[in-house]
Amino acid sequence: MNTLVAEGQLRPINPATLAPVGAVPVTLDVAPVVSGALAAQETWGRSSFEERRDLLLRVLRVVLARKDEIAATITAETGKPLVEAYTTELLLGIEQLAWVARNAEHVLAPERVRHGIPYLAHKRAHAVYEPLGVVGVISPWNFPFAIPLTQTATSVAAGNAVVAKPSELTPLSGAWVADVFAEAGAPDGLVGVVQGAAETGEALVGTSGIAKLIFTGSAATGRKIAAAAGALLRPVTLELGGKDPMLVLDDANLERAVEGAAWGSFANCGQVCVGMERIYVARNLHARFVHALAGRARRLRIGRGDDPDVELGPLITEQHRSKVEDVVAEALERGAEAVTGARRPDVGLPGWFYEPTVLVGGDPEARIEREEVFGPVVTVQPFDDADEAVALANASSFGLGASVWTRDVSRARALASRIEAGMVWTNDLGYSYGVGPAPWGGRKDSGLGRTHSRHGLYDVSHVKLVDSDRGRVAVPWWYPYRSRALDGFQGVLEVLHGDRKLRALWTHRRGLGHLARRYARR
Length: 522
Description:
alpha/beta; 6-stranded mixed β-sheet
């Protein structure tokens, strides 16, 4: 592990140098933190959108002021390159924070409900959005700041309080989320944090007062959380694993596709839920693509993330590196060929490094074709036509993201409609995490619900129908029931929705007249 638990503390370790990073006390009792969030939310839930916007914009300014410290913490705990700490953590997180601050009021404004039914023309109704209460945010180690920051900001914008549980591998990065809210002047308890390993997460899931859970992590853990929350009728949003396909069509810009594949497969040492793990290339481009991608992978600079020239850091733990090695070894045993990589590099550091690896061929039933590897490993296989490409893309239990690489945008759009994924990008990937209006989430084993966009705000809100009726119009379907009322309602159905309206008017004229008299009665 890259976190030692001793004397009631989490002690994360830099996965590149194996040096200690710091220490964080383990939360022994989750309940008081949840109670504090409940107390804060009771007032915050009545706050105006202007107050919420002002708080979030103050948080944004604090993040900007603290960006160097936050980035250094992220790189120390995860080993990711410092550039990625600024781009995939700070930049994407701030973009989402800014959008939700400025748009929550519009998105969550009451919506007029138009009945569209003649006999309800006198009524008025609105759908209103109300806070859920306290939202539990259980976040992962691969993006330990951006993910909890954006999910917390969305929840707070909707009037909720948050109790966040960072990964035990990156407790200091996760703690920054609560710290920046506190420094921005958030009410005491509005954003709390609990620290610990799996037992702390389990306690948060089951603690009374949690209204909803947002979990980002593996499908296996997501299922456990969903089952535990389901027993409590507690809703969940799950952003789980992925095994994203990249389709490179015969008219693709080869140079751009190779650069995109290198970044999409190896950024954050491949530990990205929307990272490319499966690349399918038109057969006439396959050999050139593989050669170019392998060459690009070999040129990546591997080392400790705090070196600004480093492009590939280590895997998060020794156990995780062993898992990646096992999956690759099994693929090689079953006929795959490693064009490059598949070994530990010599970088003069004791950390858990692994070379960027490109595999071709092999057994389609191998683990690498089915499991999320979550490392700097990608398979590249050829296809003959679009139908085969789509079938290969969909031949996975996961459905988070996908990408299509072509010069023909209409062709990409047509293929996107056939791919089973929550997000499909064209000639790019993953960027939309920082685009406020863009929903984020997957299908199949990649989870349920959405974060970000208006759908993310709806996910952390109660929707309530509020009806308005002056009470001056009688209701004809109330008691008493009579045969004339029955005849009248038979007529209503046929006149409003049947094909022979005039005949229905005549046949049910007495019943309709009876209803009309009741309806008009004050």
